[in-house]
Amino acid sequence: MPSTPDISITLDDGTTILLRPITAADRAYIKQGWAHLSEQSRYLRFFAPIRDLSDKQLDYLTDLDQRDHVAWGALHPGDDELAGIGVGRFIRIPDEPDTAEIAITVIDPYQRRGVGSVLFVLLYLRAMEENVTTLRAFLLPKNQPLTQRLQALGGKVEHENGTSTVNLPVYRDVDALPKTPQGKAFRDLLSQLRDMPR
Q1: This model's pTM is above 0.85
Q2: C-alpha 169: how far from its chain's center?
Q3: pLDDT at res. 1
Q4: Are strands 96-106 and 134-139 parallel, antiparallel or unpaired?
Q5: CA distance 14 to 88
Q6: What is the pLDDT of residue 198?
Q7: Contact 81, 109 (CB under 8 A)
Q8: Domain limits of the chain?
Q9: CA 121/CA 132 separation, integer angstroms
Q10: In this predicted model, what pLDDT tens digit does every residue of 42-64 receive, in sequence order?
Q11: 7-194 has which CATH code?
């Protein structure tokens, strides 16, 4: 994949962050961010109480082709202690090549500040480019706020064995997004990021 310039974006609270595709050089940022995830955040993301990331896991999370396994990172370059603040990724499902599993992780000090929304929109744009027509999220029932947000964007929810599965269509025509407040905000952010170099 050709080199991609960093994207600079200012959050609603005035914080300016950088976004860029994850590479092997980001291992340190991922380890740094992991140290600032609470046990609850780790459990909501991985469905298990994982204490540390192994070298094998770090290889998997950073050795990417950016087509079938796409990942973007969010950095706050002005915060040396918390520079690595979030990662969003999708992984194409081998026997469903038009579907990809999506997951977003933001460290606790930066949650509910819009970082996850920006990462999600970038992944949505990449899904459009890579002909992914469905983004699939696996969520725990206690993660109801995220489930409801995905539903407001057109996601269909199924519940099985204590897990919620949300299948979110990737609309090539963004005007087809639901006419909900979440849909409008998503469409506005998508339009803002779509014109930036990626």
Answers
A1: yes
A2: 16
A3: 37
A4: parallel
A5: 21
A6: 60
A7: no
A8: 7-194
A9: 14
A10: 887 877 778 888 999 999 999 99
A11: 3.40.630.30
